[in-house]
Design brief:
By secondary structure, the chain is of the alpha/beta class. The chain is built from five helices and six strands; from the N terminus they run E-E-H-E-H-E-H-E-H-E-H. Helix 1 crosses helix 5 and helix 2 runs parallel beside helix 3. The longest helix has 18 residues.
Length: 158
């Protein structure tokens, strides 16, 4: 699978890119998340990585992403846990262990109901842990709340 970028621009955000990185291997969950973002008028650039390895390459500008703009980083990372190649917990651990990415907000967005995943996510430094609602309306509301908080209200250091 290939990483792709969707360009949703809001004119007031043109000078300050607020990218959402979605790390999701399930095409149905990916489409659901993208649809919920669109339905809630969250008009940010969205980068989708389909496995943990691809997400790390994007974040650390390695492999096929070695030439990407080094001044642009995600405003928030929506990270699934059950991923191929490199699982979500390992991705989170690598994010938190590197000076370049350790302060990035990481929201675990997973269908896992395992208490161990919840505990380990917070121990590794997740900012939030959200279980994907089964109902589309609930999921859309969850994405709206996420977008409002992490993209509008939350402030990050430079």
């Amino acid at each position: 699978m290939q990483l792709f970028i969707l360009h949703y621009f809001n004119e007031s955000m043109m000078s300050e890119k607020k990218i959402i990185l979605i790390v999701e291997d399930n095409p149905d969950d990916e489409l659901l998340t993208l649809t919920a973002l669109k339905d809630n008028n969250i008009k940010n650039d969205v980068v989708v990585a389909h496995d943990g390895e691809e997400a790390l390459e994007y974040l650390f500008m390695t492999g096929k992403f070695k030439d990407r703009d080094s001044n642009v980083f995600p405003q928030v990372i929506l990270l699934d846990l059950k991923l191929p190649k490199v699982d979500g917990l390992e991705v989170l651990q690598k994010i938190r262990s590197h000076n370049l990415t350790k302060l990035m907000p990481v929201v675990i967005l997973t269908s896992s109901k395992e208490e161990a995943d919840l505990m380990k996510s917070y121990q590794l430094g997740a900012n939030s842990y959200i279980r994907k609602p089964v109902d589309f309306e609930q999921f859309t509301q969850a994405i709206k709340t996420l977008g409002l908080y992490w993209l509008v209200l939350n402030e990050l250091p430079d």
